[in-house]
Design a protein that fits this description.
The chain has 840 residues and is mainly beta. It folds into six domains: 115 residues, Immunoglobulin-like (Sandwich); 205 residues, Immunoglobulin-like; 98 residues, Cadherins (Immunoglobulin-like, Sandwich), CATH 2.60.40.60; 103 residues, Cadherins (Immunoglobulin-like); 84 residues, Immunoglobulin-like (Sandwich), CATH 2.60.40.60; 125 residues, no CATH class. It is built from eight helices and 51 strands. The protein is rod-shaped and about 265 Å long. The protein binds 2-acetamido-2-deoxy-beta-D-glucopyranose (NAG) (2 copies).
Amino acid sequence: MLVYRPSGPRAWRLLLMILFVAAWKAGSGQVHYSVPEEAKHGTFVGRIAQDLGLELAELVPRLFRVASKGQGDLLEVNLQNGILFVNSRIDREELCGRSAECSIHLEVIVDRPLQVFHVEVEVKDINDNPPVFSVSVQKLSIPESRLLDSRFPLEGASDADVGENAVLTYRLSPNEFFILDIINKKDKGKFPVLVLGKMLDREENPQLQLLLTATDGGKPEYTGSVTLLILVLDANDNAPMCDRSVYEVKMYENSANQTLVIWLNASDADEGINKEMIYSFSALVPSSIRWKFLMNEKTGEIRVNDAIDFEESTTYEIHVDVTDKGNPPMVGHCTVVVEILDENDNSPEVVITSLALPVQEDAQVGTVIALIRVSDHDSGANGQVACSLTPHVPFKLVSTFKNYYSLVVDSALDRESVSDYTLVVTARDGGSPSLWATASVSVEVADVNDNAPAFAQPEYTVFVRENNPPGCHIFTVSARDADARENARVSYSLVERRVGERALSSYVSVHAESGKVYALQPLDHEELELLQFQVSARDAGVPPLGSNVTLQVFVLDENDNAPALLPLPGAGGGAGAVSELVWRSVGAGHVVAKVRAVDADSGYNAWLSYELQPAAGGARSPFRVALYTGEISTTRSLDEADSPRQRLLVLVKDHGEPALTATATVLLSLVESGQAPKASSRALAGAAGAEAALVDVNVYLIVAICAVSSLLVLTLLLYTALRCSAPPTGGACAPGKPTLVCSSAVGSWSYSQQRRQRVCSGEGAPKTDLMAFSPSVPPGSSSGDSGEQRDIFRNDCTLLTIQAQGVALYLVEIVLSWVGLIGQERLVQKKRLHHAERYC
Ligand SMILES: *[C@@H]1O[C@H](CO)[C@@H](O)[C@H](O)[C@H]1NC(C)=O
Ligand SMILES: *[C@@H]1O[C@H](CO)[C@@H](O)[C@H](O)[C@H]1NC(C)=O
């Protein structure tokens, strides 16, 4: 290889000369090659020897050599085959920089003759350099508030290649905000510019990372890229926001102060001072709500600040403003709806609105007497009120409308049983626990004349002694009327009727107010034994009501009639004087005459006894008088010593107290046997006839009495047995339902009439004595108020039995006395035991 290297002035002269020759030669034909840069060692460039017209053989001898100006040995010639080839790496960019043309100038020199050839080897660019950015990351800060189409120039890339290989195109990674614009600057290539295609939002994308890629035009192409880091700067473009626009909060009323209602957590998407928030009540919030609630402006807590009352308001609507501290500030709004829940904090109220009182006792069932209104300020179950009334009253509540009730009569009223009621109306709400209230109504029951005056007994028996003074108070009737005032004012009157010829009112009168019954004139037992009449009681109601009571006034006998002597049948001498003839031959015990007398009274007062008055001379009379029959019989045989004319005084005495007497004079003429005066025998026969009739009567009487007595005993025994076997039910002889026992009026034989009489055991010490009475003697009567008959008796079976026995014994005694077996004295003693009650 030959390399010409000019050196020194000589060399330069030579070089100039060569240049001259070469220029000449070149003018005749210059060889031109091209080779791509970066070609491998040995890459064929051109057949340089041939092209220069040189023989291969002469190359070496002619010292073929190639010189390049300052460019070393990039190219070499193979002297064997005259081929120019690449010797070492050719870098166009190193060789020529950025100039568009780049060639290697070769000077080919051969000697003998010296010839210089110029060969141009053009180095063709290949794309061996990528576009390069000066930094790997480009940072940009862009406020989010930048407007659309804002432009942000970027630093472009550079490419060492030339021509097409250095023509750059830019690409931006896909993104929604920026588009790429390219600015072509003369001589300075293209510059990329970012253009804002969509508004930035820091809150959404606080930073963006884009990739800008530059691509050259080579084949194959090279790319270079840079990361664009875009920081989005904050602007106060976000208002504070609550997470909901309306919060619904439920809260019980009566919540304590400082109770948390809600803790608002507003948020602001901005940064820094732009997100610092202040909570406040909106201007819309009325002051009433501002008082009730307290707003913490920093934390957003809303707390109770005053009494919360459901009944005042059930909801509160609180509008809240949240303001940030940006410039200008932004405001967010939200609303808190506080729903107040009811608590059972109100008692029901009961109002009794109208009263129709007092209520008449005859008010119909269903009559409204009061209207009741209940109310409760609470709501729901807490405000639902149920009303109830005191139990067991004849009233009830009827619901007329929601919360309205009528108090009505539910069953018949009776002022006489209950004259007033205190009703308690209880209203209870449905809360838990429930609250209640009561109201009481006093219901007075007004009287209606629905009760007639009532007597304790339907019938009263009154005993009045005869010969009472006129105007004597004999009894007091009294009727009670259960009604009130006028309706209970009782007045009495006599139920007029006729008693025989006369009006009842001529016998008795009744004091209208006091009910006192007066006998207007003296009563006469012998004329009227029983006065039966009715007294009527009427109240002063309208219309009046009345009732009657029957009074049985028994006129008790008094001994006001002296015995009256009856004339003997067929005998002369008239009343009070009897003359009889007596045979001297009659033996002892012969009945010679009989004194007959009657007494208008009754009972003991009519029971006569006969006594012989002692003779004036004191001589013993041969006659005696039977105490009860009045029969005069002989005590011994008559003898001559007896005076032929005997005058006997017979004292006829009744058993009244005091006793009344009559004296009968009996004249007896003693006649000898054989003398049979017609008159006397007729008289005697008449006397005997009368005697027989009397005996007959007595026998009938005895039979009758025995029959009646045994009937009575039987009845008594039966009654006693029944009473004793049956359990006692209250007083057997209690007033109002006395037990009546029939008894014959055996105490007096003047009484042929049977009377009903009460036989009961008396109060107090048991009497073992007889208890069967004549009607003239009130049984067991205690000294009552002027003749008022009290027959309050106690049931005592034992006593009754004893008394029944006593009665039986007494009856037997009477019967026996009739047949003369028992002395008459005991009867007298018995009779003394009975004292008639004194009336008037
Ligand atoms: C606000 O935040 C507090 C604390 O984290 C929480 O207790 C409260 O419930 C939040 N408020 C709302 C309305 O979410
Ligand atoms: C009372 O007796 C009178 C007369 O007998 C009669 O008119 C009247 O109806 C009676 N009164 C009563 C309540 O029975």
